[in-house]
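Weekly sync notes, structure subgroup
Attendees: PM, AL, DS (notes)

Item 1: joint prediction request from the bench team. They want all two components modeled as one assembly rather than separately. Inputs as received:
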Amino acid sequence: MGAVTAVDRSPKQDRSRATRQRLLEAAVACLAEHGWAGSTVSVVAERAGVSRGAAQHHFPTREDLFTAAVEYVAEERSTALRALFPDGAAGDRRAVVAALVDLYTGPLFRAALHLWVAASNEDQLGARVTELEARVGRESHRAAVELLGADESGPGVRETVQGLLDMARGLGLAHLLTDDTARRGRVVAQWADILDRELAD
Amino acid sequence: MGAVTAVDRSPKQDRSRATRQRLLEAAVACLAEHGWAGSTVSVVAERAGVSRGAAQHHFPTREDLFTAAVEYVAEERSTALRALFPDGAAGDRRAVVAALVDLYTGPLFRAALHLWVAASNEDQLGARVTELEARVGRESHRAAVELLGADESGPGVRETVQGLLDMARGLGLAHLLTDDTARRGRVVAQWADILDRELAD
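Output from the run, pasted for the record:
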């Protein structure tokens, strides 16, 4: 047996990373479609085309898998959002507001919502999700401040941005059962105008 | 058997109404504490001190009981809210905003949230909850417009009020896992100021 070099290890690590990623994406899709009760490690492994043993190697518990999944996808979305506006609000503050709100209407938000609601009744999951939610919340806030070109040293600016993200979360919830796209478009247009006036001061 | 008069029937009707009300209140408390999976007609009947048969006489199905419960409590809250501000925003628009947001942080919101999320994965419940949500949403909007003294004939005013209720819903969601009272207080103070400026125009 020769020394294991970086070159030797690399393809195996790549495969392992790809497997992990497939599991995380399958976990979010599964949560969004079937809710917490219908989302087990076995169901996700099958969906990802990975053996149950391999899934458990990456994620020893169900809580590990699903909190990691929501965090992974939230990071991916946040990166994609920043890439959309490389110049921040210099582009168009209203477009930034619309894009921020969009983050809360897709499968990631549905998955996160199922996880939060399940966590509110399950202690073990609760602690994990609370910590995750704080981290994702801070990151969303940072991205919003940056993209909106908001100066948080001004009085009330921090709370203005927080309220916008709370509204985005509420709009996501309104979209859970029915297609709320048309109404949401009108609300977002109006509040983007309000925000534009407030942040321009 | 003599004719059943209004006087004869009244005490029985009162008892029946009281039983119904106990069931509805127990159902909301049960949903808020245990979620949909832990909320059955039997559990609610026991909590309300009512026989399972009597519960099923009032509410033949689980869906009947829980949608009626959320609707009943929403109506009670809405009535109580209007009673708090008999003069509408003539009192204090910022106090109205705070009171509107408060509607979304108690057991009723938690119960409704569990019902919505369960409904998103269960077709039969979904149709019922969608209809309920539309009715409760319209009523909340009407109460908000009235209490804020908002003139919806003005451009964007309708969407301004809708956005406020979306924000309130999002703030309720943020309160699900952790005590968000302090942060919410700051966000509400800031947005109540913004809303006051917007509606004063």
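Discussion: The two ends of chain A are 69 Å apart (CA to CA).
Action: AL to compare against the crosslinking data before next sync.
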